[in-house]
Task: structure prediction
Amino acid sequence: MKILIIGGGPAGSTAARFLAKKHDVTLIQDKIWDKPCGGGVKAWIFDEFDLDKNLIKHLLDKVYMVYKNKKIKIPLKDKNLAIVKRMEFDEHLRSLAQKAGAKLIYGKFKKFENKKALIEINKEKFLFEYDILIAADGVNSSVRKALNLPSIPKTITHYTKTDKYKTKECEFFFDKELGGNYYGWAFPHENLSHIGSVDAKSFENLCKYLNIDTKVKGYFIPTWQENITIQKDNIYFVGDAAAQVMPLSFEGIYYAIKSAEILTNSIINNLNYKEEWNKKYLKDFKFMKFLENLNKTPLRSLVVKAHKFNFVKNLSINLWLKSRS
Ligand SMILES: Cc1cc2nc3c(=O)[nH]c(=O)nc-3n(C[C@H](O)[C@H](O)[C@H](O)COP(=O)(O)OP(=O)(O)OC[C@H]3O[C@@H](n4cnc5c(N)ncnc54)[C@H](O)[C@@H]3O)c2cc1C
Result:
């Protein structure tokens, strides 16, 4: 079968890697870039997917919740949180897809023409045939647009990489002024820190709070909802292009890779992709959506403060770790 995959981020590269063992796979990636991202990923994914551990820049055994100037330490079981540099990480995933037999082409999906995909490569246009097309082209999916599907629900995030604030751990800021309706974050990134928050005002406040003066950048992140179309005939959506980002935590790398695994198993074994995804993740995503909504209410302060109790810390950690399988 001819499978064309648009987008060579974590979702598309993983799908290409697994499908190339059985099918004729072409992976289209528009550019080499450092995707705006904190780069935090569950560390066990390196063993689970046989990834190169040299890509891990930091391996953390705790995170901090910051609220009302107080820092609450949340120990993780073992060193469970890895920080990667997205440019290197994504290139590695694409190279694994190539090793498995996928053809990697740097080009850009433009539109559909006579049931073929029009790809621009070095300013020239080519039509690609396919039996199956996988759209792994991120939050602004142009495949979705070309099919006139509603765009992915999303929110803008504001972030920067700076050397003006140093942290060795992941810090999450839960005051409304610093984190808006979600949270602000500071992650270590080699000799820099990745600082961010969702809305512009809370980002500005976070920068003031951390005493940094920096240039802000913005990028969208999906806000998952249950009713998003993830398949239309022989076209499948995965990763950010299917909004498969965990509500509240905004963890997207792990779920892009795991969702690509579910998709490839569904294609290879002729199973219903949506049903398989729902079986594995719907309950967790719905529960986290509930917590995300709770976080927007005054109950947020109670939930954050409760983290000084060990049983609440353990509950949070288990929630974060439970999707391992
Ligand atoms: C500021 C910020 C911080 C984040 N921090 C974290 C974090 O710490 N941990 C975490 O787990 N998640 C984080 N996320 C979310 C995470 O970045 C995404 O969920 C993840 O990248 C999704 O992977 P993907 O492969 O689905 O999409 P992407 O990584 O977006 O990959 C899609 C790829 O498709 C390519 N593409 C797009 N259009 C076309 C086209 N027309 N033709 C060809 N190629 C195309 C793009 O160049 C891109 O490389 C963060 C997101 C943001 C915005």
